[in-house]
Amino acid sequence: MVVIIAGHVMTRLFVVVVFLLGGCASLRTTEEPETLPQIIYQVPLPLWPSSSTDREIILDLKIRVGSDGSVRDAAFVTPTGFREWDVQALQAVRKWRFSPAMVDGKPVPLWIHQTVRMQFEPPTFMVLAELACIEANLADSIHTLLGSGEPFDSLAKRFSVAGSRERGGLLGEVDVRTFPAHIRHELVKLQEGQFTKPLPLGQQYVIYKRLARSIEAKAN
Fold first, then answer.
1. Helix, strand, or coil here: 124?
2. Is the pTM for the entire model greater than 0.70?
3. Cβ(73)–Cβ(36) under 8 Å?
4. Distance of CA 2 to CAs 26, 70, 98, Å?
5. 50 burial via Cβ count (<10 Å: 0-12, 13-18, 19+)
6. How far apart are CA 165 and CA 152, in angstroms?
7. Integer angstrom CA distances of residue 158 from 6, 132, 140, 162, 201
8. Domains of the chain, each with CATH number or no CATH
9. Do 128 and 208 contact (CB within 8 A), yes or no?
10. Which end of the chain is least crowded, N or C, by CB within 10 Å?
11. Lowest mean pLDDT among 23-37, 50-64, 139-153, 204-218
12. Within a 13 Å sphere around the CA of 114, how many CA atoms are in the beta-carbon half?
Protein backbone atom coordinates (compact mmCIF):
# COMPACT_ATOMS: atom_id res chain seq x y z
CA MET A 1 0.00 0.00 0.00
CA VAL A 2 1.06 3.57 -0.69
CA VAL A 3 0.24 6.82 1.08
CA ILE A 4 -0.13 9.97 -1.03
CA ILE A 5 -1.27 13.33 0.26
CA ALA A 6 -3.03 16.26 -1.35
CA GLY A 7 -5.34 19.02 -0.21
CA HIS A 8 -8.93 19.85 -1.14
CA VAL A 9 -9.76 23.57 -1.23
CA MET A 10 -13.51 23.36 -0.70
CA THR A 11 -13.60 20.99 2.27
CA ARG A 12 -10.12 21.51 3.73
CA LEU A 13 -9.79 17.73 3.76
CA PHE A 14 -6.82 15.78 2.49
CA VAL A 15 -6.28 12.94 0.06
CA VAL A 16 -4.81 9.65 1.17
CA VAL A 17 -4.18 6.68 -1.08
CA VAL A 18 -5.66 3.73 0.76
CA PHE A 19 -5.66 1.01 -1.90
CA LEU A 20 -3.12 -0.06 -4.47
CA LEU A 21 -5.41 -1.21 -7.25
CA GLY A 22 -2.78 -2.59 -9.56
CA GLY A 23 0.89 -2.47 -10.37
CA CYS A 24 3.57 -3.91 -12.56
CA ALA A 25 7.20 -3.30 -13.35
CA SER A 26 9.50 -3.38 -16.35
CA LEU A 27 13.29 -3.61 -16.35
CA ARG A 28 15.73 -3.33 -19.25
CA THR A 29 17.36 -6.64 -18.45
CA THR A 30 16.64 -10.31 -19.04
CA GLU A 31 16.55 -10.98 -15.31
CA GLU A 32 13.49 -10.57 -13.12
CA PRO A 33 13.96 -8.34 -10.05
CA GLU A 34 14.12 -10.16 -6.74
CA THR A 35 12.37 -7.30 -4.95
CA LEU A 36 10.30 -4.44 -6.36
CA PRO A 37 10.54 -0.81 -5.20
CA GLN A 38 8.58 0.09 -2.08
CA ILE A 39 7.51 3.61 -1.18
CA ILE A 40 9.42 5.07 1.78
CA TYR A 41 8.49 8.74 1.76
CA GLN A 42 6.38 11.09 -0.35
CA VAL A 43 5.89 14.84 -0.29
CA PRO A 44 2.34 16.25 -0.45
CA LEU A 45 0.57 16.53 -3.76
CA PRO A 46 -0.81 19.96 -4.73
CA LEU A 47 -4.27 21.15 -3.71
CA TRP A 48 -6.94 19.34 -5.67
CA PRO A 49 -8.88 21.71 -8.00
CA SER A 50 -11.84 23.27 -6.20
CA SER A 51 -13.90 23.00 -9.37
CA SER A 52 -13.94 19.23 -9.01
CA THR A 53 -16.73 17.57 -7.03
CA ASP A 54 -15.06 14.14 -7.01
CA ARG A 55 -14.88 12.36 -3.67
CA GLU A 56 -12.55 9.68 -5.00
CA ILE A 57 -9.68 10.05 -7.46
CA ILE A 58 -8.02 7.39 -9.61
CA LEU A 59 -4.41 8.02 -10.67
CA ASP A 60 -2.59 5.98 -13.28
CA LEU A 61 1.18 6.60 -13.04
CA LYS A 62 4.45 5.43 -14.54
CA ILE A 63 7.43 6.02 -12.24
CA ARG A 64 11.09 5.33 -12.96
CA VAL A 65 12.87 4.50 -9.71
CA GLY A 66 16.64 4.84 -9.83
CA SER A 67 19.13 2.42 -8.31
CA ASP A 68 19.44 4.81 -5.35
CA GLY A 69 15.68 4.86 -4.73
CA SER A 70 15.12 8.35 -6.10
CA VAL A 71 12.46 9.06 -8.73
CA ARG A 72 14.23 9.77 -12.02
CA ASP A 73 11.08 10.29 -14.07
CA ALA A 74 7.30 10.17 -13.70
CA ALA A 75 4.33 10.49 -16.02
CA PHE A 76 0.58 10.02 -16.05
CA VAL A 77 -0.61 7.11 -18.17
CA THR A 78 -4.02 8.76 -18.11
CA PRO A 79 -4.07 12.51 -17.29
CA THR A 80 -6.61 13.70 -14.74
CA GLY A 81 -8.01 16.42 -17.00
CA PHE A 82 -6.50 19.20 -14.87
CA ARG A 83 -3.31 19.99 -16.77
CA GLU A 84 -1.77 22.42 -14.26
CA TRP A 85 -2.50 20.04 -11.38
CA ASP A 86 -0.92 17.17 -13.28
CA VAL A 87 2.28 19.17 -13.83
CA GLN A 88 2.51 20.11 -10.14
CA ALA A 89 1.67 16.58 -9.03
CA LEU A 90 4.47 15.10 -11.12
CA GLN A 91 6.89 17.62 -9.64
CA ALA A 92 5.91 16.30 -6.19
CA VAL A 93 6.17 12.66 -7.29
CA ARG A 94 9.76 13.26 -8.47
CA LYS A 95 10.67 14.09 -4.86
CA TRP A 96 9.43 10.76 -3.49
CA ARG A 97 11.79 8.09 -2.21
CA PHE A 98 11.60 4.32 -2.72
CA SER A 99 13.66 1.34 -1.80
CA PRO A 100 15.30 0.26 -5.09
CA ALA A 101 14.57 -2.90 -7.06
CA MET A 102 17.18 -5.62 -6.54
CA VAL A 103 18.70 -8.03 -9.07
CA ASP A 104 21.37 -10.49 -7.88
CA GLY A 105 21.63 -8.52 -4.66
CA LYS A 106 22.36 -5.25 -6.44
CA PRO A 107 20.08 -2.19 -6.78
CA VAL A 108 18.89 -1.49 -10.33
CA PRO A 109 16.71 1.19 -11.99
CA LEU A 110 13.15 0.15 -12.72
CA TRP A 111 9.96 1.52 -14.29
CA ILE A 112 6.88 0.81 -12.19
CA HIS A 113 3.27 1.24 -13.28
CA GLN A 114 0.78 1.85 -10.49
CA THR A 115 -2.92 2.53 -10.38
CA VAL A 116 -4.10 3.92 -7.06
CA ARG A 117 -7.37 5.09 -5.57
CA MET A 118 -7.34 8.27 -3.47
CA GLN A 119 -9.86 9.22 -0.81
CA PHE A 120 -10.19 12.27 1.46
CA GLU A 121 -9.03 12.26 5.09
CA PRO A 122 -7.91 14.91 7.61
CA PRO A 123 -4.21 15.21 8.58
CA THR A 124 -2.77 13.60 11.71
CA PHE A 125 0.33 15.19 13.29
CA MET A 126 2.57 13.53 15.88
CA VAL A 127 6.01 14.12 17.37
CA LEU A 128 7.97 10.97 16.55
CA ALA A 129 11.36 9.37 16.99
CA GLU A 130 12.71 6.52 14.88
CA LEU A 131 15.21 3.72 15.27
CA ALA A 132 16.13 1.95 12.02
CA CYS A 133 18.03 -1.32 11.61
CA ILE A 134 19.13 -3.34 8.60
CA GLU A 135 18.69 -6.71 10.32
CA ALA A 136 15.34 -7.95 11.60
CA ASN A 137 16.95 -9.88 14.48
CA LEU A 138 18.71 -6.77 15.76
CA ALA A 139 15.49 -4.76 15.55
CA ASP A 140 13.69 -7.47 17.56
CA SER A 141 16.43 -7.43 20.21
CA ILE A 142 16.25 -3.64 20.50
CA HIS A 143 12.47 -3.86 20.80
CA THR A 144 12.96 -6.21 23.73
CA LEU A 145 15.40 -3.77 25.36
CA LEU A 146 12.87 -0.95 24.96
CA GLY A 147 10.26 -3.13 26.63
CA SER A 148 12.60 -3.60 29.59
CA GLY A 149 12.96 0.16 30.02
CA GLU A 150 16.10 1.05 28.05
CA PRO A 151 16.00 4.71 26.84
CA PHE A 152 14.92 5.06 23.21
CA ASP A 153 17.29 7.92 22.43
CA SER A 154 20.34 6.07 23.79
CA LEU A 155 19.56 2.96 21.76
CA ALA A 156 18.97 5.06 18.65
CA LYS A 157 22.38 6.72 19.01
CA ARG A 158 24.02 3.29 19.39
CA PHE A 159 22.24 1.20 16.81
CA SER A 160 20.15 3.26 14.37
CA VAL A 161 21.28 3.62 10.75
CA ALA A 162 18.89 6.53 10.08
CA GLY A 163 20.03 10.11 9.58
CA SER A 164 18.29 11.02 12.83
CA ARG A 165 20.75 8.90 14.83
CA GLU A 166 22.72 11.82 16.29
CA ARG A 167 19.45 13.38 17.52
CA GLY A 168 18.52 10.22 19.37
CA GLY A 169 16.13 9.33 16.56
CA LEU A 170 14.09 12.53 16.84
CA LEU A 171 12.06 13.29 13.71
CA GLY A 172 10.01 16.12 15.21
CA GLU A 173 6.37 16.79 14.35
CA VAL A 174 5.32 14.96 11.20
CA ASP A 175 2.09 14.19 9.39
CA VAL A 176 1.72 10.42 9.70
CA ARG A 177 0.07 10.31 6.27
CA THR A 178 3.52 10.71 4.72
CA PHE A 179 4.24 7.10 5.77
CA PRO A 180 3.17 3.96 3.93
CA ALA A 181 -0.24 2.63 4.96
CA HIS A 182 1.06 -0.30 7.06
CA ILE A 183 3.16 2.10 9.15
CA ARG A 184 0.44 4.73 9.40
CA HIS A 185 -1.91 2.04 10.68
CA GLU A 186 0.45 1.36 13.61
CA LEU A 187 1.32 5.00 14.34
CA VAL A 188 -2.28 6.11 14.85
CA LYS A 189 -2.60 3.56 17.66
CA LEU A 190 0.23 5.10 19.70
CA GLN A 191 -0.25 7.13 22.84
CA GLU A 192 2.54 9.46 23.98
CA GLY A 193 5.47 7.41 25.27
CA GLN A 194 4.50 4.26 23.38
CA PHE A 195 6.51 2.67 20.58
CA THR A 196 5.76 0.30 17.71
CA LYS A 197 7.09 -3.14 16.99
CA PRO A 198 9.79 -3.25 14.26
CA LEU A 199 8.09 -2.34 10.98
CA PRO A 200 9.50 -3.13 7.52
CA LEU A 201 10.31 -0.03 5.49
CA GLY A 202 12.18 -0.69 2.27
CA GLN A 203 15.32 -2.64 3.20
CA GLN A 204 15.13 -1.61 6.87
CA TYR A 205 13.16 -2.39 10.02
CA VAL A 206 12.06 0.70 11.94
CA ILE A 207 10.72 1.22 15.45
CA TYR A 208 8.80 4.47 16.00
CA LYS A 209 8.08 6.15 19.32
CA ARG A 210 5.46 8.82 19.90
CA LEU A 211 6.81 11.69 22.00
CA ALA A 212 5.19 14.55 23.87
CA ARG A 213 5.10 17.85 21.97
CA SER A 214 7.28 19.41 24.69
CA ILE A 215 10.13 17.14 23.54
CA GLU A 216 10.31 18.86 20.17
CA ALA A 217 10.25 22.28 21.83
CA LYS A 218 13.26 21.33 24.00
CA ALA A 219 15.14 19.99 20.98
CA ASN A 220 14.69 23.31 19.18
1. coil
2. no
3. no
4. 19, 16, 11
5. exposed
6. 11
7. 36, 11, 15, 11, 20
8. 5-121 (3.30.1150), 125-219 (3.10.50.40)
9. yes
10. C
11. 23-37
12. 22
